[in-house]
Design goal:
The protein is mainly alpha-helical and 757 residues long. 49% of the residues lie in helices and 4% in strands. It has 30 helices and eight strands. A two-stranded antiparallel ribbon has the order 1-2. The chain is globular.
Length: 757
């Protein structure tokens, strides 16, 4: 059986906090009883049988393990409570629901204080990692037979009925998803004549019916070139020489969004080297399988701009195509000849300096999985026996997650983000005495996970921002500051600081709070909005030259209503507890942030969500931010319009359910069949409660709460439904813990602000 390991180290690993928050899976052939192993197989079969109806796994393997390990945390089993349509919700019944939910929630908390949970969903996360391991020869070392078996299971489980794979597990088939996942299965030993209902043959047919792999977007062309099943001359240029431009240049890599910069750096190194892995018999076979024309007759220059319509979210301006053509036909021949080749060598050296700096400051986790896969190859190419490459290999398991649908690769994890929300949700229930051990463990995690130092050396020279005092999205070792993660964790830590240390542990030091405030204040732009990672360094017009066809808003840093709201809320609480610290700056930040939220409201009363689906998600954040600033239903037209918007989207069953298509099309779209989603229902209810809708007409809130109460399962869990996380307009990210913490949070707020009121 697979076993989840928490806060454990190993060879070649580096840590700054004794691995707190680290979660990785290991296969133990001797683990589990025969009954447990049979149960796991049953869960796998059930997922596969229902995979077209329920596409997201429910973390059942993790729950099975942690519920067994934490059996002593389970409280008294409270009888299920259900409420009939139009029946009044009684206080006693609501408390039963909360206690059941909190009992289950506590039982899946790890011993280091965080809640392990999946953070995956995109179908382009696994293939670059597999390709990187294949071309470096490390695949058998890192991916044992059980790893490969579970990756194959996951890939087949999320193949669409038409034979292709989407950008994410809920999406229609794309050339990017189909080509890369087809290649992954082939690299892991799957053959065209293997069973699985002729899955590979159907996948190949989808690829060829849509013109073949020449129609894959730019990132796909890059990874296929690295593997050797595409030619570098068919790729749009990624010149490393951009690192040699003057820092004031508008297209200097230092001005890019950190994720784009983190990916561009190793990718430009591999492009500059024109690296191609060993041309094995399998690679030669793939060259024949993926194209409608013979490989050596393909016009690679024409293929450079060929991307099928199913993969295009963002189109390039004609000027960009002209520039790429110039770089391809003029720039590349020049940089390949002496003495200009010396410029290329210098650029490659600078790129590797930045790459090594990022590796060292993230303990070789890297900012994300896409940059890690490319950085790993670059380190291997520079020195195949290097310490850096071995350090990279050791951190690969940090990205793996195993569930009933197989083994997947995560973005990197959402440990700190989830704990910050979890603390606020538990406290909102006003059942603190029964959950003190849960809060104490979470408090310990928050204290151990704050970043205590800035990036090493002259970090400004390396285009890094301050990080001392921040929280990351995942763990302290990851090292990358995030404004909303810092703000939400700060608010959670401040709430815990108001409780007795004898109950929830020693308070964080005051200086730690000051450092957190320093980080989030530094990320406010002139328009009042807050950026996630770094201050804005480039103009918005540069986003038009985003080279990634399937993503949007991924090229330069920008402000978001979600980040702005999180910061406002945390600063308001901080100001209450520490009224004399940087008071003028904090008041100014709150005031500007409030105006930004009001200014970005849509005419229909909603806000567009960038990090969740979609209008429901962002509207919740906006409402919370405005209420934190003293706004109410009576004195704020923005809040009244927000309530009107949410009520207009309420479903007949009492809930809300918004499709990911809202993100893509920027028009609110219901889930198919007008289904309700419990997480989105909780967001909407939290918004209505905070905005004061209960004082006007509480009936929509009551009916929504009935839906949440009746949806709770026998053990206190809530059912896994559609993914509710999103990023960069076109992709989804699952936060499996959301299905527990947000219904609990909404029920807790309802108890205090509606029933008690």
């Amino acid at each position: 059986m697979w076993k989840l390991k928490i806060a454990e180290g190993g060879p070649w690993l580096i840590t700054g906090n004794n691995y707190v928050g680290r979660q990785h899976w290991e296969f133990d052939p001797d683990a589990g009883t025969p009954e447990e192993r049979a149960h796991v197989e049953q869960l796998r079969r059930q997922f596969s049988q229902n995979r077209f109806r329920i596409k997201q796994s429910a973390d059942l393997l993790m729950i099975l393990q942690l519920r067994k390990e934490n059996e002593n945390r389970r409280g008294e089993i409270v009888a299920p409570f259900k409420v009939k349509e139009r029946e009044e919700i009684k206080k006693e019944g609501l408390i039963k629901t909360l206690k059941r939910g909190l009992s289950f929630f506590s039982s899946i908390q790890a011993h280091d204080g965080h809640w392990p949970a999946e953070s995956a969903g995109p179908l382009f996360f696994i293939p670059p990692m597999v390709i990187a391991l294949y071309v470096t020869g490390a695949l058998p070392e890192v991916l044992g037979p059980e790893h490969q078996k579970e990756i194959i299971r996951y890939t087949y489980n999320h193949q669409n009925d038409d034979g292709g794979w989407g950008l994410h597990i809920e999406g229609p088939s794309t050339m990017f998803g189909s080509t890369l996942n087809y290649i992954t299965l082939r690299l892991l030993g799957e053959g065209l004549d293997d069973s699985h209902n002729s899955a590979l043959a159907r996948a190949r047919k989808w690829i060829l019916d849509h013109g073949g792999a020449i129609g894959v977007p730019s990132w796909g062309k890059f990874w296929l070139s690295v593997l050797g099943v595409y030619e570098w001359s068919g790729c749009n240029p990624l010149p490393p020489e951009l690192w040699l431009l003057p820092k004031l240049s508008p297209i200097h890599p230092g001005k890019l969004l950190c994720y784009s910069r983190g990916s561009y750096t190793p990718m430009s190194y591999l492009y500059g080297k024109k690296f191609v892995g060993r041309i094995s018999s399998l690679v030669q076979s793939l060259r024949q399988e993926l194209y409608t024309d013979p490989y050596y007759q393909i016009n690679w220059n024409l293929a450079r701009g060929n991307v099928i319509k199913e993969d295009v979210c963002h189109t390039h301006p004609w000027l960009q195509d002209i520039l790429w053509g110039f770089l391809q036909h003029v720039g590349e021949p020049i940089f390949s000849c002496w003495p200009f080749s010396m410029v290329r060598e210098k650029a490659l050296k600078v790129a590797m300096e930045h790459l090594h700096y990022e590796d060292e400051n993230s303990k070789y986790i890297c900012i994300g999985n896409a940059s890690k896969a490319a950085a790993m190859i670059a380190c291997w190419l520079e020195d195949r026996n290097s310490q850096a490459f071995n350090l990279h290999l050791a951190r690969i398991p940090d990205y793996f997650w195993v569930a009933e649908d197989g083994l997947k690769v995560q973005g990197f994890g959402s440990q700190s983000w989830d704990v910050a929300f979890a603390v606020q949700a538990v406290i909102s229930c006003n059942l603190t005495e029964e959950n003190l051990s849960t809060l104490r463990r979470a408090h310990d995690f928050l204290k151990a996970s704050q970043v205590r130092e800035n990036p090493s050396g002259n970090f400004a020279k390396m285009y890094r921002h301050i990080s001392k005092g921040a929280w990351t999205f995942s763990t302290q070792d990851h090292g990358w500051q995030v404004s909303d993660c810092t703000a939400e964790a700060l608010e959670a830590a401040l709430l815990l600081s108001e409780m007795s240390p004898s109950l929830v542990g020693e308070r964080m030091e005051t200086e730690c709070f000051y450092d957190a405030v320093n980080v989030i204040l530094s990320l406010q732009s002139n328009n009042g909005g807050i950026t996630p990672w770094e201050p804005v360094r480039a103009s918005r017009w540069l986003e038009k030259f985003n080279p990634i066809e399937f993503l949007e808003d991924c090229f330069v840093e920008r402000e978001y209503v979600e980040c702005t709201s999180s910061v406002i809320q945390s600063l308001q609480l901080f100001k209450k507890l520490y009224p004399n610290h940087r008071r003028k700056e904090i008041n100014n930040c709150i005031s500007k942030g409030m105006r930004y939220i009001e200014d970005t409201q849509n005419l229909d009363g909603s806000w567009y969500g960038y990090w969740g689906i979609c209008y429901t998600y962002a509207t919740w954040f906006a409402v919370e931010g405005l209420v934190a600033c003293g706004k109410s239903y009576k004195n704020s037209s923005a809040l009244r319009k927000a309530c009107e918007f949410l009520l207009s989207k309420k479903l007949p069953n009492g809930g809300w359910g918004e499709s990911y298509l809202s993100c893509q099309n920027k028009v609110y779209t219901n889930l198919e069949g007008n289904r309700a989603n419990l997480v989105q229902t909780a967001w909407a209810l939290l918004s209505l409660i905070k905005a004061g809708q209960a004082d006007i007409d509480p009936s929509p809130i009551h009916s929504g709460m009935r839906l949440l109460i009746n949806a709770q399962m026998e053990d206190g869990d809530f059912p896994q439904q559609e993914i509710t996380g999103a990023f960069m307009k076109n992709c989804l990210l699952n936060f499996s813990l959301y299905r527990n913490l947000f219904p609990i949070w909404a029920l807790g707020e309802y108890r205090i602000h509606v029933l008690h009121a």
